[in-house]
Amino acid sequence: MQATIIYEDGDHRWIMFGRDPNKSDGIIDTNQYLVQSGDQAMLLDPGGIELFAPMLSAVLKFIPAEKITHLFASHQDPDIISSLGLWDQALPDAKLYSPWLWESFIRHFGMSQIRFCAIPDEGQTLTLGRIQLQFVPAHYLHSSGNFHVYDPKAKILMSGDIGAAMEDSAAPLFVDSMTTHTPKMRQFHQRWMPSNDAKLDWIRRVRQLDINIMAPQHGRLFRQPHMTEFLDWFEELPVGIAVR
User: Fold this and answer.
1) Residue 55's closest CA among 95, 91, 2?
2) Predicted confidence pLDDT, tens digits, the chain (244 residues)
3) DSSP letter string over 138-207?
4) Three-state secondary structure along 56-69?
5) Is the link from the previous residue into 142 a cis peptide, with omega within 30 of 0?
6) Is the previous residue joined to 172 through a cis bond, with omega within 30 degrees of 0?
7) Whole-angstrom Cα distance, residue 53 to residue 49?
8) What residue spans define the domains of the chain?
């Protein structure tokens, strides 16, 4: 499991975990994130059950387990949160923030000690250490109950499946050309994003945020100007095209 610090300012930092060279070829590659401020930290979309051991080992190189006070699951997919039952044993005092819609589904992954904190449809703000994180609605993109995480101090948007591309672990960390990268995203977004109305609502919200890095759950991250170029491309892309 590779780990890369993508933002650091004193005790406020973002770390990306992924690109595991030892993962099975049958498992899609995922990006997991940890955001820390002071004595508190949150794991964002901590991954599938098959990733728990390498994830835990990688995370503990940066922060002791007792400082991981929060988890976040953007939606209910197994590559997002099927490791929950194991995190429940490792972090019994943590809180899991996730869409209210998916609580009864997510509990199937196992949760007897971690406290479930339901995010309302309109989103909310969470204090983590000395920073404020915003849960930004991204409903139907691709899950009917879905959120992203925005850190206004770091100017990072963790964007879940939006911006995702399926590439091998040797790909660069950041997008370097939208011309060559958009073909890697097109089919994924057209199949998995079902609603043009929801897409446009999300773009409207995100254009109002000050973003330096957009960090999806799969593939490369976006810096400016590629972040703005992505929004322009996504705005024009017809989605939900599997059924005609």
Assistant:
1) 2
2) 899 999 999 999 999 999 877 777 777 789 999 999 999 999 999 999 999 999 999 999 999 999 999 999 999 999 999 999 999 999 999 999 999 999 999 999 999 999 999 999 999 999 999 999 999 999 999 999 999 999 999 999 999 999 999 887 778 999 999 999 999 999 999 999 999 999 999 999 999 999 999 999 999 999 999 999 999 999 999 999 865 5
3) -TTSSSSS-EEEEETTTTEEEEETTT-----TTS-SB---HHHHHHHHHHHHHHH---HHHHHHHHHHHH
4) HHHHCCCCCHHHEE
5) yes
6) no
7) 8
8) 2-173+211-223
Residues 6+ apart with CB under 8 A from 86: 49, 52, 56, 110
Helix (H, G, I), strand (E, B) or coil at 86: helix
Element (H, E) at 53: helix 52-59
- The CATH code belonging to domain 2-173+211-223 is 3.60.15.10
Q: In sequence order, which residues have a C-beta less than 8 Å from that of residue 201 and are 6 or more positions away?
A: 137
